[in-house]
Write a structure and sequence with these properties.
This protein is α+β, with helices and mostly antiparallel strands. It has 3 domains: about 110 residues; about 90 residues, SH3 type barrels, CATH 2.30.30.520; about 80 residues, 2-Layer Sandwich (Alpha-Beta Plaits). Helices cover about 35% and strands about 25% of the residues. It is built from 10 helices and 12 strands. Helix 1 packs across helix 3. The N and C termini lie far apart (about 65 Å).
Length: about 300
Amino acid sequence: MRKSSTAYLFECYIWLVNTIAHGPVSREAIDQKWARASVNDYKTDSIPESTFHRWRNTVEMLFDIEIKCNAHGEYYIEETESFRRTDLRSRIFNLLSINNLLKDCQDLRKYILFEPMADGEEHLPTIIEALRDKHVLNIYYQNFSSLKPIPYEVEPYCLKMYRQRWYLIAFARNRGGIRHFALDRVVTILPTQVLYNIPVNFDADEYFKNVCGVTILKDKPEEIIISVKTPQVPYFRTLPLHHSQKEIEVGRYESKFSYYLIPTEEFIRELRAYGIDVVVRSPDWLCQQFRADNKVLYNVYRKISPE
């Protein structure tokens, strides 16, 4: 039943946070908003006091925030701006709160266009609760090369979004190592009551520090230098390909950028996407790879459209 499902309760939590985040707001005002909210499957005019405080306690744990009540009996979130700036928490909150808002404003859907996202968002509430409570998950994962779903018993470590896909990074107990699971390829996910602990030395930011994307290699990071034609330079400045990006030379027709990372296939694909507007300057092995790839591509097009 939807009203008792984890996904529905998570929608209620998001609604409550979104309502109080624009506070201070009284309980009476919260109830008035609740009566008109599309998420209100209970069809009640108010939130019972015990339910309100239960939700309040849960969202404080889920989002690592503190909901306070002032002398006028109005509720507000302590350090709201700090809460909204937190990367992963902010992304999840914004994605789901926008979804809830659009349910209340159906006429706006035709004016707000989104890039298509891979499936898998429906698994987020279950994974986030498992991360919060440190409960092992049983998942059945269908990768692109297997004929049937593969079972995994996993300890969730973190979530990451990359190119409209959510990824779960988790320790696979039955595989003895960390694995990355694209949520759109998760067929089934089942919570358990088995407890685990995230290793004290695991840091999600540090884990992905030297890569662009989600692929982790054992290679050492190295400096990559590229030149970017002037029309594309503002795009690189406003949305860096990697946090290590530095603009090391500004010219009339092009600028040079440097990166310190492991050149994974995801990073190389990012560079290739810009075509002739981006040229790899170093290291030499990467220049040679682009040169060879472009030669192959040239020969392919030569067969399709001879000179």
